[in-house]
Write a structure and sequence with these properties.
alpha+beta, 9-stranded antiparallel sheet, 9 strands, 20% helix, elongated, binds flavin mononucleotide
Length: 198
């Protein structure tokens, strides 16, 4: 039988493992936390979910960053509520992570400039889509994307980096010998955790 992981029955190690998975996510394309699901709440109170690419996670700050179009529904929902949640499940290591927290759009500041500068051209192109994301089309191909460097640069005002500051984290490890579930809430600069019944 596979040996139990080091973090089993060690809540501090479980938290460290959770952040290691999140911090590795942006670099490792096959990591489940490379493309977590992002949840927001819309103007009717209904939950909305979609996949995003996690660009950066920072354990010390407790933050996660992704990018989106400021014309998108998710940007409007984050602007209206200031809240978001993220979820991922890594079937290889049998770990589910749930994150909820506050969320802030960065459009015109240094953080957004740096994020834009660090984006690949193939990503920047998306921010020049016309009409904007979510607009109804007469046919599936009735939209355009910028083709020249100058036209791609014009998409910058549509770009925003979103930083989620986690206020609650939840970790679930599945194992036949006994699942382990834990949750943490942010207390100042640190986390207070507890085991939960799975
Ligand atoms: C693999 C994958 C990665 C995606 N990454 C992003 C992303 O990083 N940012 C983003 O805004 N949308 C991303 N999308 C598209 C969203 O899932 C969604 O369809 C789109 O942004 C519209 O969402 P909204 O109307 O809720 O704003 C991705 C979709 C897939 C399938």
């Amino acid at each position: 039988m596979t040996p139990l992981p080091d973090f089993y029955d060690d809540i501090e190690a479980s938290l460290a493992h959770l952040w290691r998975l999140l911090e590795e996510g942006p670099r490792l394309r096959r990591n489940a936390f490379h493309m977590p699901a992002l949840a927001t709440v819309d103007e009717t109170g209904a939950p909305q979910l979609r996949t995003i690419v996690l660009r950066e996670a920072e354990a010390v700050a407790g933050t996660l960053r992704f990018h989106c179009d400021r014309r998108s529904r998710k940007a409007a929902e984050i602007a209206a509520t200031g809240r978001a949640a993220l979820h991922g499940y890594d079937s290889a290591s049998k770990v589910q992570i749930r994150i909820s927290g506050t969320a802030m759009l960065h459009t015109d500041d240094a953080l957004a400039d740096e994020a834009w500068a660090g984006s690949l051209v193939m990503s920047r192109v998306c921010y020049g889509v016309a009409p904007g994301p979510g607009v109804e089309l007469a046919s599936g191909d009735a939209y355009s994307l910028p083709e020249t460097d100058a036209a791609i640069a014009l998409g910058r005002p549509n770009f925003c980096a979103v930083v989620v500051t986690a206020t609650r984290l939840e970790f679930l490890f599945l194992d036949r010998r006994g699942h382990r579930r834990a949750a943490w809430t942010r207390e100042g600069a640190g986390w207070t955790g507890t085991w939960l019944a799975p």
